[in-house]
Amino acid sequence: MERYTITRFNEDFPDEDACLQAIVEMVYPAGIPCRKCQRVRPHAKLTGRKAYSCAHCGTHVYPLAGTIFEKSTTPLKSWFYAMYLMASTRCGISAKQLERELGVTYKTAWRMFTQIRKLMEEDGGPLSGEVEVDETYVGGKPRGQASMSPSGRKYRPVSDNKIMVMGAVERGGQVRATAVLGSHVGKALPLVDMHIMPASTVFTDEAMAYRNLKRRGYTHHRINHSAKVYVRGNVHTQTIEGFWSLLKNGIRGTHHAVGAAYLQTYVNEYVFRYNHRKDTAPMFETLKARMTRVRHGRYGVYAPVGE
Ligand SMILES: [Zn+2]
């Protein structure tokens, strides 16, 4: 991945006007339209405001409307710098670290952190080819590993407040992951249907939840983890387990603990990091290209836990 250095960042965005200009160019690539004139018009920036005025009729335009910056009094340069920091660290950065780096209050840092992570929500299409499906448990204090009964039913680890995350990854491709309320392994099949193209080859462990995949039109291979078998030819779930490591290390190393209400947003962040790990464009560019999009609580199949 091309490195986007802090020097280049400061050259590209030296001040507020440069940041606003970048947003205007993204919101109005063909020029600023005036809603009164009903056409693209030259506009002049209003001094000291994040607004423009139509040169013809004087109608004001607010390019930040509907973006994550809309109601913020924090300088755009700080927002851009926060995006830069979140994009240029491999495992992410916490709201606490943002507070220190930006010199803002924790409350402001937390809000920016949450808003920027909305830009990390992915809109990917279904997976196909060879797809590994698995679930894991995140959060809370673990009191032991998930155990497997002889019939292959996976027991939830004994824990105070662990939350199940279901995931699917296309080998060599993208990952999808969703936090699931409770420990309903039965939600595995709807997730598979939602995220995986019919006629794909699906690899899972021997958990009961996955026993009907063949009937649903998938080629299904299972690896017998309870018998301590982890790889049999191409039958394994090591790709998705690689993603689980990224997710868990990221949460443990950067954020320490994650409340149930926000788990899906953290999952989204690491899905984003995984899916863009091989991009040639810097992650900051990807985030920047998304910063004007307006999102209204778009999540996966399941409602985010606790929201
Ligand atoms: Zn006008």
The beta-strand count equals 12
Q: Major beta sheet, specifics?
A: 5 strands, mixed
Residue windows where pLDDT falls under 50 for at least 5 positions: 295-307
Bound ions, cofactors and other small molecules, one mention each: zinc ion
* Portion in strands: 15-25%
Mean pLDDT: 84
Please give the order of strands in the largest beta sheet.
10-9-6-11-12
What is the overall shape? elongated
Question: Can you walk through the features of this model?
Answer:
With 307 residues, the chain is an alpha+beta fold. The protein has helices at residues 6-12, 16-27, 76-88, 95-102, 106-118, 188-195, 238-255, 263-275, 283-290; strands at residues 33-34, 39-40, 43-45, 52-54, 60-61, 130-138, 147-148, 154-155, 163-170, 175-180, 201-205, 219-223. The strands form 4 sheets. The protein has a 5-stranded mixed beta sheet with strand order 10-9-6-11-12, sandwiched between helices. The longest helix has 18 residues, at 238-255. The two termini are 35 Å apart. Zinc ion (ZN) binds next to loops.
Keywords:
307 residues; alpha+beta; 5-stranded mixed β-sheet; 3-stranded antiparallel β-sheet; 9 helices; 33% helix; disordered C terminus; binds zinc ion
